[in-house]
Structure formats: structure tokens, C-alpha cells
UniProtKB/TrEMBL annotation:
It comes from Clostridium tanneri. This is Histidine ammonia-lyase. It is found in: Cytoplasm. Keywords: Cytoplasm, Histidine metabolism, Lyase. Belongs to the PAL/histidase family. Signal peptide: none annotated. SUPFAM superfamilies: L-aspartase-like. There is a cross-link at residues 143-145 (5-imidazolinone (Ala-Gly)). The modification 2,3-didehydroalanine (Ser) is found at residue 144. The keyword Lyase applies.
Amino acid sequence: MNVVNLTGNSLTIEDLINVAANGYRVCLTEEAKERVTKAREIVDNIVDNSKIVYGITTGFGKFSDVTISGEQCKTLQRNLIMSHSCGTGRSFPKEITRAIMLLRANNLSKGYSGIRLSTLETLIDMINKGVHPAIPEKGSLGASGDLAPLSHMVLPMIGEGEAEFEGVMMSGREAMEKAGISLVELVAKEGLALINGTQVMTAVGAISLYKSMNLLKLSDIAAAMTLEALRGIRTAFDPRVHQVRPHKGQIDTAQNMLNLVEGSTFVTNQGEIRTQDAYTLRCVPQVHGASKDAVNYVKEKIEIEMNSVTDNPIVFENGDVISGGNFHGQPVALSFDFLGIAVAEIANISERRLERLINYQLNDLPPFLVKNGGLNSGFMITQYAAASLVSENKVLAHPASVDSIPSSANQEDHVSMGTIAARKSFDIVNNATRVVATELMAACQAIDFRDGLMLGKGTSEAYRIIRSKVSFIKEDTVMYKELDKCEELLLNGELLKAVEGKVKIEI
């Protein structure tokens, strides 16, 4: 059985993907259980002794000065979840929902939130048994955590809301009953412990990050194939050029290009056919490399956030309970905006290479890569569709983190909008994937118009995989179906796995 053990300190992007998409189970380590239990004892002591501590024996936000008696604590926690469940829009897909639940469980396992071990184990049972709460995409400001969406995550735990179980959406209570999981009666601090954190924005952003890391490798493959199709110049990727401007992403990309076209007779040397290529070919290392450096920066920040305490207040081992601001999403909000911009640029340059492939005024290939042009339109409108996605990305790439709006009667007067930034990055990555898939399909089409030449070590494998699903377009066909097939090879990992079995691709 494949299991991810939660320590609170060691969760990786790969762990998250395995739980979110690959069905891995989740377990708490014994050390984590001990930490959770000790923190709960501190909270129980506060309640038993009627101490005034924010979030435990007080109201929330602007109501932080309202004292709550021990008898009212259960009502307070239930009211918190129900009143904060104000999300709207479509529900997140199952993979993101599972990632949200995993990240919240990992946060709680660190032992700084004061939740009961039994309540945390209920959340983990939901992951393992496939009870997936309906969590609306919209409604979070990204400070005080992801309050609204995380409240929707909790609703089924208390017998409210909706959840998906075994492929069917039903009431939260019914889903819990069918899965054989007992409902929870929340006690002091537990409602707040479950919802005050950055796990929604981090989950969405982490999945976007994982997809973008793969896409950056695929974009190098696409660029290499286009380089070959256009008989481009390999000399621009000479390591000496990049060592004198030693950005890591740039150096890695140039080497990737050389690895992919190794042995190719399609590519040329400087001065053999032309002296220089257009920027979209010659500057692949500089453009793709900058995006790689950005993505690696984001990865560092996200893996910190995945293993951080983002609760408020925080319960420390010595009994101190401190109200701070770790729920504020600014560190990752900026990162997700950066991620969106970086990936939007990958789509931008890919669409321009697509234009160079299909525009006969820019190459020596048949117009729009089709025989009997006029009767057939060939790849003409594939560029239109790609251009529309690129333009949409330009709108989406506007940073969300520069915005803020006060909430809770101006008590919470600066917020991150990090969840919006994460959602935008997710959409940008999806759009960019379609653009790169379109470039790959067009590059294969262009390659087929050239005879007597040999593809490179990596590009020949990419060509083989694509041609196993997508045939040469002899005459006009229903194009989206062919594009869908090519895109699926990117999404399911088949293309990248095959190419990386032949050559090394760095990011």
C-alpha cells in the first residue's frame, strides 16, 4: 500500500501529487500524534481555568473582545463553520480538494493548533476513504487564511454541506455515513484550527507548480522540434554563450536544446543557411530559462509553506498561546503571481514559434502546413486559437497580490488575494499547455514536409510518440480532436516520460 506519512515537516510536491491524484493513503507518525495531544492539553487547561485567549474563549475577528464561556465553546465552533461557509462558484476538482485536505492535515500534525487528535484523524479518514467535500473556488481573501473555502471543507465533518463519495455528490452527512466515518462535535479552538490557514491557495498553487515544471520541460521539446522543422541554428546554444551570462535556467535550457537535437541533420550551423535565427528560436534559453528560474523560486516558497504553521492563535509547547499573522498569504500570493507571469511567457513564445511554422512568408514550407492550400486551411486556425489563449493569459497574468480590501470592520485591513493568484496561475498553466501542444503538433507536420533528414536523439522520440496518436494532416479534418490527442500526451506524462528516457532535461 502506498502511504504518505505526515510529520508536519517533510511534505513534498511529489507527496502532494501522489495523495491528490494517485490515490496514496495518509498516516500520522507517532511523533505527530504526541505533539497534537500535548497541544490539546494546553487548550483544555485554558478552557477549564476560564482564561481569556483569542479564538479559544473569545469571538473572532472584530469580535475578539467578546468573551465566550466554557459552556458556549461548542456552539461557538459550530457557528463559526456554518457562518463562514460563504463560498461561491464551481467546486474545486477532486484532486485539488484532496490536496487541500492533505495540507490542512499536515499543518495540524505539527502540533501548534490545539485540535483533538480524534478530529484530525477524522479529516485523514475522509482523505483515505474518499469523502471529498464540495469546496467552492471563490470566496477567499487570502488572509485570516482561506476561511470560506476551508469552512466548506469542514461542513461534512459536522454533518452539513455536500461531499462527493464514490463518484456521487450527496449531502455531507450521507457521505460520512456511507464511508463509515463518525461525525465530529467541535470543541474549543477546533473550528478555528481547521479553517485558519493558507491551505487552499497553497494546494491550488502547488498543483499549478507541478504542472508548470513538466510544461517547462515540454516547452523545450517543442522548441527543439520547431528548431529542426525550420532548419534552425544550433550554434546559438553553444555553452560558451551562456557561461558568460550564467543564469542557471538559461544554461540548463541551452544544454537541453543541444541534448534534444543531438545527432540531428535538420539543424544547421551559423552561416550554413542563415547567419541568425529569429528571437523565438535563438533566445529560447534566455526566455525559457528565465521562467525556469522563476518556477524554482516558487517551488522553494511553496515547499516552505506546505510545512508551515499558518494557524492563529498558535499554541506553543510551554503553554504560551500567541496571536500573530501566519495566516496571511502574502508570501505565496506574490509567488503565484510570479508563477502565472512566468508560464504566460512560455505560451507567448510558443505561439510565436507556431506562427513561424505556419506562415509561409517566414519559412520555406507550404502555407499553413497543408497540401492543396485554399481548398484546405490546414493549421491556419490553430494559430487563432493559440493566440486567443495567449491573450487570455495576458489578462490573467495581472497580479492579484497588488490588490487588497479591508474586512471584519477594518480589523483585517490588508489581505493578500493569494487564492485568486493561485487560481489564475492554474488557468494560465492549462492554457499554456494547449498552446505548447499545438506547437508540437505543427512542428511534426512541418517535419513531414522535409525529406532525407534525421531528427535528434530526443526529438525523434517526441515525434514517435506524437505520431502514434496524431497522423499527418493530409486534408482538413475536425482539428480539435487531433489537438486534444496531442494535448493528452502532455497531460498524461507519456510524451515527457518517453523523451526523458532518451535524454536528460533539466529545469
